[in-house]
Amino acid sequence: MDREETKEILKTITGIYPGFYRDADRNGKIAAIDLWTSVFAEEPFELVTAALKAFIVSDTKGFAPVPGQIKEKIRLIMQPKEMTEQEAWQLVYKAIKNSGYAENARTEYEKLPDVIRSIVTPAQLREWALADAGSIQTVTASNFMRSFRQRKKEVSDYMALPSDVRQAIEGLAGAKELEGGQAR
């Protein structure tokens, strides 16, 4: 979205929420346009407009949106239906039932979606396969679902970052890995 499109978005927000930047001076308004332009630089105007409309029709508090709220609406529009923690646990439980042997645990692990594989290991699948079934369906399930919720939030928060910020983070992470590799 470019600067002129950003002005249109902010004009719409001001029309619906008259208090939006009411007390801002010229420099404050320019700073707001610059900020919104940079935050939504990668988003098509039509998508931001749709997200703003989605925000407006669901707003029950009467306060103008901040960029993060519009970004959240964009994520909801763009993301396909996500797996629930219960659905994720069912996949893990199915893998557990087939993981009594180490080679089976590895095979079952490889079948799991990436988000789940970031939470469990083949060794855990095997360990859980050999554990008491009652505790697996209660304690282990609860702990896994909590971890799954947290991981989904981390991924969502990361994906909400502008691509230039994600690239900077990935660059720093890559540099840290190189430093760690050289220090060994």
Can you walk me through this structure?
With 184 residues, the chain is mostly helical. The chain has two domains: 76 residues; 93 residues, no CATH class. It is 76% helix and 0% strand. It is built from ten helices and no strands. Helix 1 runs parallel beside helix 3, helix 3 crosses helix 4 and helix 6 crosses helix 8. The longest helix has 28 residues. The model has no long low-confidence stretch (mean pLDDT 90).
Number of domains: 2
The whole-angstrom Rg is: 23 Å
The secondary structure category is mainly alpha
* Beta-strand segment tally: 0
CA-CA gap between termini: 46 Å
User: Low-confidence segments, ≥5 residues, pLDDT <50?
Assistant: none
Kindly estimate the percentage of residues that lie in beta strands according to DSSP. Answer: under 5%
| Average pLDDT figure | 90
**Count of DSSP helices?**
10
Shape: elongated
The biggest beta sheet reads: none
- Portion of residues within helices: over 70%
Write the H/E string, N to C.
HHHHHHHHHH
